[in-house]
Amino acid sequence: MSSGKLIDILLLGSGGREDALAWRLRQSPSCGRLLAAPGNPGIARWAQCVAIDPCSPADVVTLARSANIDLVVVGPEGPLVAGVADACRAAGIAVFGPNAAAAELEGSKGFTKDLCAAAVIPTASYVRANGDQEALAELSRFSLPLVVKADGLAAGKGVTVAETRAEAEAAIADIGNAPLVIEEFLHGEEASLFALVDGEVAVPLASAQDHKRVGDGDTGPNTGGMGAYSPARVLTPELQARAMAEIVLPTARAMVAMGRPFSGVLYAGLMLTDEGPKLIEYNVRFGDPECEAIMPRIEGDLAELLLAVATGRLAEIAPPELSDETAITVVVAAEGYPGTPRKGCVIDGIEAAEQVEGVTVFQAGTARHGSGALLAAGGRVLAITARGPTLAEARARAYRATDAIDFADGFCRRDIGWRELEREGT
C-alpha cells in the first residue's frame, strides 16, 4: 500500500491452489497478517486458519471486519458464484475476485459462448440446449468427435469429448435435464493463459499447460488436473499477444459494456489451432494445479499486485515479473480418484521431499488427525512442485521428491510435461 502499511489478508479456500497462494503471499514484503478460511494443514504453515464457510458472504464479511482485513483473496470459484466478492465490495472491503455477475464467465458455459459470438471472439462453433431431449435433437448438426459440456460449474470435470454418437448420448444423459453446450471439436494443442483484469485493463501474468486425464499418455477420464508446468512455451510470445488482443481484451471490454466489469484473474483455456488461438473456456480464478506451478515463478510483491487489481490500480503499477525458470507440479491423488477416493491413509515424508532442491509440497486434500498424523482427506491430495533451469531438471526434481513421500494409497502420472519434453527432444 502506498502508505507503507502492511496489507492484512484473508484468503478463502482449502486446496492446493490456496496453499500455493498462501505460501507466495507470506513471502510478499507488504503482507502483514495472513488468515485463511477454512484452510488446510498445509496452509496452516503460512496462515492462521479460521473455520468459517468461505461460500457464506455474511460470514466472510463478518470475519474480514472483525479482523480489520485490508484485502480478501478468493481462491476457488464457489465463493465467487455465491456473491462473496459482491458482499465484500458492498461492505467497503477490497477483494481480489469478480462479482457474481462477472463470475458467470465460468458459471455458465453458454453465457460465455454467447459473449464470444457477440464480440467475435474466436471459439468453437456451438449450440446451447436446455435439457437432454433438446440436446439429443441437436447432435446431428456436429461431426464426430464433438464436445459435450455441462453449462454450470462442475469442478473441472463436466466436459466429455465424445468419439461416437453413443458416447455423446451417454454424456448428455449424465448431465440430465439441465442446461448444456454442444461444441465442435477443435484440433490443436491446449494451453492456459492467466491474465490480471481490472475493468478494461488487462495484463498477461503467466502461461501454463495442465494434464486433465487421470492416466499416463492422456488416458482415462478427465480430472480436475493431474499436473501442470509453467511457462507453456507452445504459447509463444506472438501467440500470447494474439490471445490477449483477440480474446482476453475483447472479453474485458464486452463485460464492461454489459455492466459486468471483471476484476481479478481471468484464466483463458486456449486451443492453439492452425488458425491461431481459440477460446475453449474461461475460469474466473487461478487454475488448480496451474496455480501451484505459477506461484514459484512470480517475483516481486504478490500482495501489492493483487491489491492493485482489487482497488482499480492495475494500470498504475509495474507489470508482474516472472522468473525465467520452469516450474512443474505433479499431483498425487488418492486411490479411486476421480471416482470415490479412499480417505484416511497416513502421509509421511513431506519434509524429506522438500529437501530436494527447488521443491515445495503443497497440500490439497489433507487433514490432521488428533494424534498429529497427516491424513489423506480428498481426491487430489498433494501438489509436488519443483523449479529448475529447464523443464527436464524441474521434472526430475519433482519426481525425486514424489518418490520420497510415503502415501500407500497415492498415485500420480509419471509423464507430466511430456509434450514440451518431446518438442525439446529430451
From TrEMBL:
Every ATP-grasp domain range: 113-311
InterPro entries associated with the record: ATP-grasp, ATP_grasp_subdomain_1, PreATP-grasp_dom_sf, PRibGlycinamid_synth_ATP-grasp, PRibGlycinamide_synth, PRibGlycinamide_synth_C-dom, PRibGlycinamide_synth_C_sf, PRibGlycinamide_synth_CS
The name this protein goes by in its record: Phosphoribosylamine--glycine ligase
Matching NCBIfam families: purD
One Pfam family it belongs to: GARS_N
Family: Belongs to the GARS family.
Keywords: ATP-binding, Ligase, Nucleotide-binding, Purine biosynthesis
Reactions listed under catalytic activity: 5-phospho-beta-D-ribosylamine + glycine + ATP = N(1)-(5-phospho-beta-D-ribosyl)glycinamide + ADP + phosphate + H(+)
